[in-house]
Amino acid sequence: QASNPLWQSRGSSAVPSGGRFRCPSCRHEVVLDRHGVYGLQRNLLVENIIDIYKQESARPLHAKAEQHLMCEEHEDERINIYCLRCEAPTCSLCKVFGAHKDCEVAPLPAVYQRQKSELSDGIAMLVAGNDRIQAIITQMEEICHTIEDNSRRQKQHLGLRFDSLYGILEERKKELLQSIAREQEEKVQHVRGLIRQYGDHLEASSKLVESAIQAMEEPQMAVYLQ
């Protein structure tokens, strides 16, 4: 909307002038250039998820319906219901005569849709969490740069001050420069330690997202639920 001239001409208060708005993930201010939204950074993880959904929707339905998982106990019976107590897909004969006759069951498609929806929500939460962690890492990188810039300015300031003093102050100048360098190193090491911790968490979370995405690619309801 910020890049649409019609919105600007309407004088909408919801879209600030100049194509400025805040990122919904990291809350940093974003300024659109002449490329508009196409100039923004791409989220490759979300694009991969979208590609998987497109591939799923492009598959013919009859091809998915041709294969059926058969019951191990009743070889001629298709698995078509889900035992809520045992949390396992089963067949109608198992419900009537077999091990699940006293269990509560539900239609396989309903459980399939519910659990797949829960997994989809879980993936969305993980992706949002990864975005927040990435935003935190970015902020910490900025803190490191700020510490280094502040240290550089302090060193320059001390250099100008002590260059105008007598030679008896040269030793004092050296001590203060070393003190600043130690403080810089301590602060940078502390922040980089936090960055490594968040980076490890981001890597583990990304692997979990990839595993969940692979599960989303399973077209067979019973195999998916197993």
Plain-language structure description:
Helix content is about 60%, strand content about 5%. The chain has helices at about 5-10, 45-60, 60-65, 90-95, 110-165, 170-215, 220-225; strands at about 20, 30, 80-85, 90, 105. The protein has a 3-stranded antiparallel sheet with strand order 4-3-5. It has a two-stranded antiparallel sheet with strand order 1-2. Strand 1 and strand 2 form a beta hairpin. Helix 5 packs antiparallel against helix 6 (about 170-215). Mean pLDDT is about 80; it is low at about 1-15 and about 60-65. It is elongated, with a radius of gyration of 30 Å. It has about 230 residues and is mainly α. The longest helix is centred in the middle third of the chain and has 56 residues, at about 110-165. The chain contains 7 helices and 5 strands; from the N terminus they run H-E-E-H-H-E-E-H-E-H-H-H.
